[in-house]
Amino acid sequence: MTGEAKRSAPIPACEQPGEGVPTHVAIIMDGNGRWAAQRGLPRFEGHRRGVEAIRRAVRTAGDLGIRYLTVYSFSAENWRRPAQEVSDLMGLLKRFVRHDLADLHANNIRVRIIGEREGLSPDIRSILDEAEQLTRSNTGLTLVIAFNYGGRQEIVGAIRALARQVKAGALDPEAIDLETVEAGLDTHGIPDPDLLIRTSGEQRISNFLTWQTAYSEFVFVPAFWPDFDDAIFRAAIEEYNRRDRRFGGLTARAG
Ligand code: IPE
Ligand code: IPE
Ligand code: MG
């Protein structure tokens, strides 16, 4: 099946997004440090307030009928930060999952984690596993948490898996196509993001969903992540609805 055919295939009823609403929204939650600096607060305070913004975003996504919300919470490159900040971010993730998991589950939210688990401490790994296991049968919003995630690293992982299959004689190199590569990504089974939002005014991808954003619409908002709220989220979706997505083809609007 080609990518185009896949996109136009009917979405199962339980997966229908709300009207005028993207199926999958991905967010680069940036600007926690600057939010704190502006207020003379330690960066940690920005990260702590950032967790509250995640809760708000999950609520809005659910209210709007968005099917998938992916949030970039720790990049493969964020290990370059001072050890104290890295440890603060790990602690916040742990606390968020511990504190919010029951609520997420009660709200029929399915949690999926993308990113490299190797290299994470065993307690974090088990918390992430538990979140996925507990919520695996939920049918509401899927909350995808990108943690220790790098888009290029993810593609390398998929290539390695394919190379292993070829070496074992289980895969003909000529059979490798978009679908076989996609199947090896952490996001397998999740439709590509329709809309990618980045806060804080930076206009770059920072190694987020490198493969999956090939045809995503990008909306950059000036607000720092801790200030992200329902109104900003809805305004980004309105902006998305004004866009004319063509996927390389032509649409009525393109004339
Ligand atoms: C986003 O805020 C959170 C993470 C990257 C984990 P930052 O910490 O990058 O904040 P700024 O960009 O320095 O303001
Ligand atoms: C991207 O933000 C990573 C996350 C939001 C988790 P960064 O703040 O790390 O990105 P750069 O370094 O400014 O590109
Ligand atoms: Mg940043």
Automatic annotation (TrEMBL):
<feature type="binding site">
    <location>
        <position position="81"/>
    </location>
    <ligand>
        <name>substrate</name>
    </ligand>
</feature>
<feature type="binding site">
    <location>
        <position position="217"/>
    </location>
    <ligand>
        <name>Mg(2+)</name>
    </ligand>
</feature>
<feature type="binding site">
    <location>
        <position position="79"/>
    </location>
    <ligand>
        <name>substrate</name>
    </ligand>
</feature>
<dbReference type="InterPro" id="IPR001441">
    <property type="entry name" value="UPP_synth-like"/>
</dbReference>
<keyword id="KW-0460">Magnesium</keyword>
<dbReference type="InterPro" id="IPR018520">
    <property type="entry name" value="UPP_synth-like_CS"/>
</dbReference>
<comment type="subunit">
    <text>Homodimer.</text>
</comment>
<feature type="binding site">
    <location>
        <position position="198"/>
    </location>
    <ligand>
        <name>substrate</name>
    </ligand>
</feature>
<protein>
    <recommendedName>
        <fullName>Isoprenyl transferase</fullName>
        <ecNumber>2.5.1.-</ecNumber>
    </recommendedName>
</protein>
<comment type="function">
    <text>Catalyzes the condensation of isopentenyl diphosphate (IPP) with allylic pyrophosphates generating different type of terpenoids.</text>
</comment>
<keyword id="KW-0479">Metal-binding</keyword>
<feature type="binding site">
    <location>
        <begin position="204"/>
        <end position="206"/>
    </location>
    <ligand>
        <name>substrate</name>
    </ligand>
</feature>
<comment type="similarity">
    <text>Belongs to the UPP synthase family.</text>
</comment>
<feature type="active site" description="Proton acceptor">
    <location>
        <position position="78"/>
    </location>
</feature>
<dbReference type="GO" id="GO:0016740">
    <property type="term" value="F:transferase activity"/>
</dbReference>
<dbReference type="InterPro" id="IPR036424">
    <property type="entry name" value="UPP_synth-like_sf"/>
</dbReference>
<feature type="binding site">
    <location>
        <begin position="75"/>
        <end position="77"/>
    </location>
    <ligand>
        <name>substrate</name>
    </ligand>
</feature>
<feature type="binding site">
    <location>
        <begin position="31"/>
        <end position="34"/>
    </location>
    <ligand>
        <name>substrate</name>
    </ligand>
</feature>
<dbReference type="Pfam" id="PF01255">
    <property type="entry name" value="Prenyltransf"/>
</dbReference>
<feature type="active site">
    <location>
        <position position="30"/>
    </location>
</feature>
<keyword id="KW-0808">Transferase</keyword>
<feature type="binding site">
    <location>
        <position position="30"/>
    </location>
    <ligand>
        <name>Mg(2+)</name>
    </ligand>
</feature>
<feature type="binding site">
    <location>
        <position position="43"/>
    </location>
    <ligand>
        <name>substrate</name>
    </ligand>
</feature>
<feature type="binding site">
    <location>
        <position position="47"/>
    </location>
    <ligand>
        <name>substrate</name>
    </ligand>
</feature>
<feature type="binding site">
    <location>
        <position position="35"/>
    </location>
    <ligand>
        <name>substrate</name>
    </ligand>
</feature>
